[in-house]
Specification:
single chain, alpha+beta, two-stranded antiparallel ribbon, 32% helix, extended
Length: 75
């Protein structure tokens, strides 16, 4: 799933994330499974007319730390 090439993928085969609805009443594990069931490929989906691809780096650095570093670099 994560190897989808957004330059060649048919957007018609992807789900639109705006149609995904998270039931916050479910336990965390069930919310995750429900999200995957709804979105299909969690690495590649649409947001309107845009194809979105996400990826993750194998690192111990958190998103918060990355965002702080980015903000500091702009000051």
């Amino acid at each position: 799933m994560k190897n989808v090439d957004i330059r060649t993928v048919d957007p018609e085969t992807l789900r639109d994330i705006r149609d995904v609805h998270i039931n916050t009443e479910l336990p965390k594990q069930e919310r995750i499974l429900d999200y995957i069931r709804q979105i299909g490929n969690p690495y590649c989906y649409c947001h309107g007319k845009y194809v979105v691809k996400i990826s993750f780096t194998d690192t111990d650095v958190t998103l918060d730390e990355r965002l702080l570093d980015y903000i500091r670099s702009k000051i």
